[in-house]
Write a structure and sequence with these properties.
By secondary structure, the protein is of the alpha/beta class. The chain is about 40% helix and about 15% strand. The strands form two sheets. Strands 1-7-6-5-4-2-3 form a seven-stranded mixed β-sheet, with helices on both faces. The chain has a three-stranded antiparallel β-sheet with strand order 8-10-9, with helices on one face.
Protein backbone atom coordinates (compact mmCIF):
# COMPACT_ATOMS: atom_id res chain seq x y z
CA UNK A 1 0.00 0.00 0.00
CA UNK A 2 1.16 3.54 -0.71
CA UNK A 3 1.67 6.51 1.55
CA UNK A 4 -1.41 7.52 3.51
CA UNK A 5 -0.88 11.29 3.43
CA UNK A 6 -4.39 11.99 2.14
CA UNK A 7 -6.40 9.17 3.77
CA UNK A 8 -7.50 11.37 6.67
CA UNK A 9 -6.91 12.15 10.32
CA UNK A 10 -7.20 8.62 11.68
CA UNK A 11 -4.22 7.70 9.51
CA UNK A 12 -2.16 10.48 11.12
CA UNK A 13 0.00 9.87 14.15
CA UNK A 14 -0.76 11.38 17.55
CA UNK A 15 0.40 14.97 17.97
CA UNK A 16 3.74 14.88 19.83
CA UNK A 17 2.60 17.38 22.46
CA UNK A 18 -0.34 15.14 23.33
CA UNK A 19 1.87 12.08 23.42
CA UNK A 20 4.09 13.86 25.95
CA UNK A 21 1.05 14.58 28.12
CA UNK A 22 -0.05 10.95 28.01
CA UNK A 23 3.41 9.81 29.10
CA UNK A 24 3.58 12.43 31.85
CA UNK A 25 0.21 11.50 33.32
CA UNK A 26 1.40 7.90 33.61
CA UNK A 27 3.65 9.04 36.47
CA UNK A 28 0.73 10.53 38.39
CA UNK A 29 -1.27 8.59 40.95
CA UNK A 30 -4.73 7.61 39.69
CA UNK A 31 -7.26 9.66 41.64
CA UNK A 32 -10.47 8.35 40.01
CA UNK A 33 -11.84 6.66 36.91
CA UNK A 34 -14.67 6.70 34.33
CA UNK A 35 -14.24 10.43 33.66
CA UNK A 36 -14.09 11.49 37.29
CA UNK A 37 -10.31 11.92 37.39
CA UNK A 38 -8.77 15.39 37.74
CA UNK A 39 -7.82 15.85 34.07
CA UNK A 40 -11.21 14.75 32.77
CA UNK A 41 -12.98 17.06 35.21
CA UNK A 42 -10.71 19.96 34.28
CA UNK A 43 -11.41 19.41 30.58
CA UNK A 44 -15.13 19.66 31.31
CA UNK A 45 -14.51 22.93 33.18
CA UNK A 46 -12.65 24.24 30.14
CA UNK A 47 -15.53 23.23 27.87
CA UNK A 48 -18.02 24.94 30.20
CA UNK A 49 -16.15 28.22 29.68
CA UNK A 50 -17.49 28.37 26.11
CA UNK A 51 -21.07 28.54 27.38
CA UNK A 52 -23.09 30.95 29.50
CA UNK A 53 -25.60 28.25 30.43
CA UNK A 54 -24.71 25.05 32.22
CA UNK A 55 -23.75 22.01 30.15
CA UNK A 56 -23.78 18.28 30.95
CA UNK A 57 -21.00 16.14 29.55
CA UNK A 58 -19.55 12.68 29.29
CA UNK A 59 -16.77 11.00 27.35
CA UNK A 60 -16.68 8.38 24.64
CA UNK A 61 -13.73 6.44 23.31
CA UNK A 62 -14.48 7.08 19.63
CA UNK A 63 -16.78 9.01 17.31
CA UNK A 64 -19.29 6.23 16.72
CA UNK A 65 -19.50 5.63 20.45
CA UNK A 66 -20.08 9.35 21.02
CA UNK A 67 -22.95 9.43 18.52
CA UNK A 68 -24.64 6.34 19.94
CA UNK A 69 -24.21 7.44 23.55
CA UNK A 70 -25.55 10.93 22.77
CA UNK A 71 -28.57 9.72 20.83
CA UNK A 72 -29.32 7.03 23.39
CA UNK A 73 -29.58 9.80 25.97
CA UNK A 74 -31.79 11.96 23.75
CA UNK A 75 -34.22 9.41 22.27
CA UNK A 76 -37.14 7.49 23.74
CA UNK A 77 -37.39 3.85 22.70
CA UNK A 78 -39.91 4.67 19.97
CA UNK A 79 -38.05 7.73 18.69
CA UNK A 80 -36.25 8.21 15.41
CA UNK A 81 -33.76 10.62 13.87
CA UNK A 82 -33.72 12.64 10.67
CA UNK A 83 -30.40 13.13 8.87
CA UNK A 84 -28.82 13.61 5.48
CA UNK A 85 -28.35 10.30 3.69
CA UNK A 86 -24.58 10.87 3.67
CA UNK A 87 -24.32 11.57 7.41
CA UNK A 88 -21.70 9.48 9.20
CA UNK A 89 -24.22 7.84 11.54
CA UNK A 90 -26.09 6.58 8.46
CA UNK A 91 -23.18 5.52 6.26
CA UNK A 92 -19.95 4.71 8.07
CA UNK A 93 -21.01 3.21 11.39
CA UNK A 94 -22.07 -0.26 10.24
CA UNK A 95 -25.66 0.18 11.42
CA UNK A 96 -24.52 0.78 15.00
CA UNK A 97 -27.35 3.21 15.67
CA UNK A 98 -30.10 0.86 14.50
CA UNK A 99 -28.50 -2.24 16.00
CA UNK A 100 -27.82 -0.70 19.40
CA UNK A 101 -30.89 1.47 19.88
CA UNK A 102 -33.43 -0.27 17.67
CA UNK A 103 -34.57 3.12 16.40
CA UNK A 104 -35.29 4.27 12.86
CA UNK A 105 -33.27 6.61 10.64
CA UNK A 106 -35.23 8.85 8.29
CA UNK A 107 -32.71 9.91 5.67
CA UNK A 108 -32.89 12.87 3.31
CA UNK A 109 -31.12 12.95 -0.04
CA UNK A 110 -28.85 16.00 -0.07
CA UNK A 111 -26.38 16.58 -2.89
CA UNK A 112 -23.88 18.44 -0.72
CA UNK A 113 -24.55 16.51 2.50
CA UNK A 114 -26.41 19.44 4.09
CA UNK A 115 -29.93 19.27 5.46
CA UNK A 116 -32.33 22.12 4.81
CA UNK A 117 -35.58 22.99 6.51
CA UNK A 118 -37.45 22.14 3.31
CA UNK A 119 -35.74 18.74 3.03
CA UNK A 120 -36.55 17.86 6.63
CA UNK A 121 -40.15 19.03 6.27
CA UNK A 122 -40.66 16.95 3.12
CA UNK A 123 -39.15 13.85 4.72
CA UNK A 124 -41.29 14.17 7.84
CA UNK A 125 -44.41 14.61 5.73
CA UNK A 126 -43.61 11.50 3.70
CA UNK A 127 -42.97 9.44 6.84
CA UNK A 128 -45.98 10.60 8.82
CA UNK A 129 -48.34 7.82 7.76
CA UNK A 130 -45.95 5.12 9.04
CA UNK A 131 -46.27 6.25 12.64
CA UNK A 132 -42.64 7.23 13.23
CA UNK A 133 -41.89 9.55 16.15
CA UNK A 134 -39.14 11.92 14.97
CA UNK A 135 -37.23 13.37 17.91
CA UNK A 136 -33.77 14.50 16.79
CA UNK A 137 -32.32 16.15 13.69
CA UNK A 138 -28.77 14.85 13.31
CA UNK A 139 -26.22 16.80 11.27
CA UNK A 140 -22.49 16.56 10.72
CA UNK A 141 -20.51 19.80 10.94
CA UNK A 142 -18.63 19.91 8.63
CA UNK A 143 -20.44 17.37 6.46
CA UNK A 144 -18.98 14.18 5.04
CA UNK A 145 -18.12 16.24 1.95
CA UNK A 146 -16.29 18.97 3.86
CA UNK A 147 -19.09 21.46 3.27
CA UNK A 148 -20.38 23.54 6.15
CA UNK A 149 -23.57 24.82 7.63
CA UNK A 150 -23.42 28.58 8.10
CA UNK A 151 -24.57 29.93 11.45
CA UNK A 152 -27.76 31.16 9.80
CA UNK A 153 -28.41 27.70 8.34
CA UNK A 154 -27.85 26.09 11.73
CA UNK A 155 -30.22 28.53 13.41
CA UNK A 156 -32.90 27.94 10.78
CA UNK A 157 -32.71 24.18 11.32
CA UNK A 158 -32.78 24.59 15.10
CA UNK A 159 -35.73 26.99 15.01
CA UNK A 160 -37.67 24.62 12.76
CA UNK A 161 -36.83 21.53 14.85
CA UNK A 162 -37.75 23.30 18.07
CA UNK A 163 -41.08 24.40 16.58
CA UNK A 164 -41.85 20.67 16.24
CA UNK A 165 -40.51 19.93 19.74
CA UNK A 166 -37.52 18.14 18.19
CA UNK A 167 -33.86 18.59 19.13
CA UNK A 168 -30.72 19.12 17.05
CA UNK A 169 -27.54 17.10 17.55
CA UNK A 170 -24.22 17.78 15.80
CA UNK A 171 -21.73 15.01 15.08
CA UNK A 172 -18.68 17.17 15.71
CA UNK A 173 -15.81 14.81 14.97
CA UNK A 174 -14.29 17.65 12.89
CA UNK A 175 -16.07 20.55 14.57
CA UNK A 176 -12.82 22.46 14.99
CA UNK A 177 -12.39 22.62 11.21
CA UNK A 178 -15.82 24.23 10.91
CA UNK A 179 -15.21 26.70 13.75
CA UNK A 180 -11.98 27.86 12.10
CA UNK A 181 -13.37 27.98 8.57
CA UNK A 182 -16.39 30.03 9.64
CA UNK A 183 -14.18 32.34 11.70
CA UNK A 184 -16.50 31.88 14.63
CA UNK A 185 -16.46 30.39 18.12
CA UNK A 186 -17.93 27.25 19.63
CA UNK A 187 -20.17 29.53 21.67
CA UNK A 188 -21.68 31.15 18.58
CA UNK A 189 -21.97 27.87 16.68
CA UNK A 190 -23.79 26.03 19.48
CA UNK A 191 -25.37 28.38 22.01
CA UNK A 192 -25.88 31.16 19.49
CA UNK A 193 -27.82 28.98 17.04
CA UNK A 194 -29.76 26.81 19.48
CA UNK A 195 -28.02 23.47 18.90
CA UNK A 196 -29.08 21.18 21.74
CA UNK A 197 -26.20 18.71 21.88
CA UNK A 198 -22.97 17.89 20.09
CA UNK A 199 -19.90 15.73 20.15
CA UNK A 200 -16.53 17.43 20.34
CA UNK A 201 -13.96 15.40 18.49
CA UNK A 202 -10.49 14.97 19.94
CA UNK A 203 -9.33 12.03 17.78
CA UNK A 204 -9.33 13.99 14.51
CA UNK A 205 -7.83 17.01 16.29
CA UNK A 206 -4.58 15.20 17.08
CA UNK A 207 -5.46 12.97 20.03
CA UNK A 208 -4.82 9.24 20.28
CA UNK A 209 -8.49 8.61 21.04
CA UNK A 210 -11.49 10.18 22.70
CA UNK A 211 -14.50 12.44 22.19
CA UNK A 212 -16.57 14.55 24.54
CA UNK A 213 -20.38 14.51 24.40
CA UNK A 214 -21.98 17.81 25.41
CA UNK A 215 -25.64 18.38 26.26
CA UNK A 216 -27.41 21.67 26.92
CA UNK A 217 -30.48 20.10 28.56
CA UNK A 218 -30.46 18.61 32.04
CA UNK A 219 -32.85 15.75 31.31
CA UNK A 220 -30.26 14.19 29.00
CA UNK A 221 -27.50 14.52 31.56
CA UNK A 222 -29.26 12.88 34.49
CA UNK A 223 -28.22 9.30 33.72
CA UNK A 224 -24.94 9.86 31.88
CA UNK A 225 -22.67 7.71 34.10
CA UNK A 226 -25.11 4.82 33.75
CA UNK A 227 -25.59 5.27 30.00
CA UNK A 228 -21.85 5.66 29.41
CA UNK A 229 -21.17 2.28 30.98
CA UNK A 230 -24.21 0.65 29.38
CA UNK A 231 -22.94 1.89 26.00
CA UNK A 232 -19.51 0.38 26.73
CA UNK A 233 -17.86 3.79 26.43
CA UNK A 234 -16.51 4.02 29.97
CA UNK A 235 -12.75 4.00 30.41
CA UNK A 236 -11.36 2.86 33.73
CA UNK A 237 -8.05 4.66 33.19
CA UNK A 238 -9.85 7.77 32.02
CA UNK A 239 -7.02 10.12 32.91
CA UNK A 240 -5.38 9.14 29.62
CA UNK A 241 -8.44 10.36 27.73
CA UNK A 242 -9.08 13.37 29.93
CA UNK A 243 -5.55 14.72 29.69
CA UNK A 244 -5.81 14.77 25.90
CA UNK A 245 -9.06 16.75 25.92
CA UNK A 246 -7.65 19.00 28.61
CA UNK A 247 -4.54 19.85 26.60
CA UNK A 248 -6.39 20.36 23.31
CA UNK A 249 -8.77 22.81 24.96
CA UNK A 250 -6.28 24.53 27.24
CA UNK A 251 -3.68 25.11 24.53
CA UNK A 252 -6.06 25.77 21.65
CA UNK A 253 -4.36 22.97 19.72
CA UNK A 254 -7.71 21.65 18.48
CA UNK A 255 -8.18 24.89 16.55
CA UNK A 256 -4.54 25.27 15.54
CA UNK A 257 -4.48 21.79 14.00
CA UNK A 258 -7.79 22.44 12.25
CA UNK A 259 -6.43 25.66 10.77
CA UNK A 260 -3.34 23.89 9.42
CA UNK A 261 -5.48 21.15 7.88
CA UNK A 262 -7.87 23.64 6.27
CA UNK A 263 -4.98 25.66 4.86
CA UNK A 264 -3.39 22.54 3.39
CA UNK A 265 -6.68 21.69 1.66
CA UNK A 266 -6.81 25.16 0.14
CA UNK A 267 -3.26 24.76 -1.19
CA UNK A 268 -4.17 21.39 -2.64
CA UNK A 269 -7.32 22.82 -4.20
CA UNK A 270 -5.35 25.60 -5.90
CA UNK A 271 -2.78 23.17 -7.30
CA UNK A 272 -5.45 20.81 -8.64
CA UNK A 273 -7.27 23.68 -10.31
CA UNK A 274 -4.02 24.76 -11.95
CA UNK A 275 -3.74 21.42 -13.75
CA UNK A 276 -7.42 21.26 -14.65
CA UNK A 277 -8.65 18.62 -12.18
CA UNK A 278 -12.41 19.12 -11.63
CA UNK A 279 -13.72 19.36 -8.08
CA UNK A 280 -17.01 17.83 -6.96
CA UNK A 281 -17.74 20.03 -3.93
CA UNK A 282 -16.58 23.43 -2.66
CA UNK A 283 -13.43 23.13 -0.56
CA UNK A 284 -14.53 24.70 2.71
CA UNK A 285 -12.63 22.74 5.34
CA UNK A 286 -9.91 20.09 5.15
CA UNK A 287 -11.39 17.76 2.52
CA UNK A 288 -10.97 17.94 -1.24
CA UNK A 289 -13.28 15.87 -3.43
CA UNK A 290 -11.99 15.70 -6.98
CA UNK A 291 -12.94 13.76 -10.10
CA UNK A 292 -10.21 11.52 -11.49
CA UNK A 293 -10.18 9.20 -14.45
CA UNK A 294 -9.15 5.59 -13.81
CA UNK A 295 -5.78 6.43 -15.37
CA UNK A 296 -5.30 9.40 -13.04
CA UNK A 297 -6.27 7.35 -10.00
CA UNK A 298 -3.80 4.66 -11.04
CA UNK A 299 -1.11 7.32 -11.36
CA UNK A 300 -1.51 8.64 -7.82
CA UNK A 301 -1.83 5.15 -6.31
CA UNK A 302 1.73 4.50 -7.45
CA UNK A 303 2.69 6.71 -4.51
CA UNK A 304 -0.37 7.23 -2.30
CA UNK A 305 -3.05 4.99 -0.85
CA UNK A 306 -6.22 6.26 -2.55
CA UNK A 307 -9.50 4.92 -3.87
CA UNK A 308 -12.77 6.08 -5.35
CA UNK A 309 -15.06 7.56 -2.72
CA UNK A 310 -17.89 7.19 -5.20
CA UNK A 311 -16.91 4.86 -8.01
CA UNK A 312 -19.77 5.58 -10.49
CA UNK A 313 -18.88 9.30 -10.53
CA UNK A 314 -15.09 8.79 -10.20
CA UNK A 315 -14.94 10.99 -7.10
CA UNK A 316 -11.85 10.68 -4.90
CA UNK A 317 -11.59 12.15 -1.40
CA UNK A 318 -8.28 13.73 -0.43
CA UNK A 319 -8.30 14.64 3.26
CA UNK A 320 -5.66 16.96 4.66
CA UNK A 321 -4.42 17.08 8.24
CA UNK A 322 -2.19 19.29 10.34
CA UNK A 323 0.72 17.15 9.09
CA UNK A 324 0.01 17.53 5.35
CA UNK A 325 3.15 18.95 3.77
CA UNK A 326 3.80 20.95 0.63
CA UNK A 327 6.05 18.08 -0.46
CA UNK A 328 3.14 15.64 -0.32
CA UNK A 329 0.93 18.03 -2.29
CA UNK A 330 3.67 18.57 -4.87
CA UNK A 331 4.21 14.83 -5.25
CA UNK A 332 0.51 14.14 -5.72
CA UNK A 333 0.11 16.91 -8.30
CA UNK A 334 3.21 15.70 -10.15
CA UNK A 335 1.63 12.25 -10.48
CA UNK A 336 -1.39 13.87 -12.14
CA UNK A 337 0.53 16.24 -14.42
Amino acid sequence: MGRKDFRGEVWTTVHPDILERIVAVNDEPIDDNDGRDFHSRHAVELMQQFFKERIWTTYAINGTGANILALKSMLPRNGCIVCAAQTHVNTHECGAFEYTLGCKILECECDDGKLTVDAVAARLKAARRFGYVPQVVVITQPTEFGTMYSLDELKALCDYAHSLKMAVYIDGARIGNAVVALNTTLTEMIEGTGVDAFSWGATKAGAMFGEMVVFRREEWGASLPYLQKQSMQHLDKSQFLGVQAEYLLESGLWLENAKLANQAAKRLEARLRQIGIPLRYPVETNMVFCILTPEQLKAITQVFDAHYWDEPTHVVRLACTYKTTDEAIDTLVAQLS
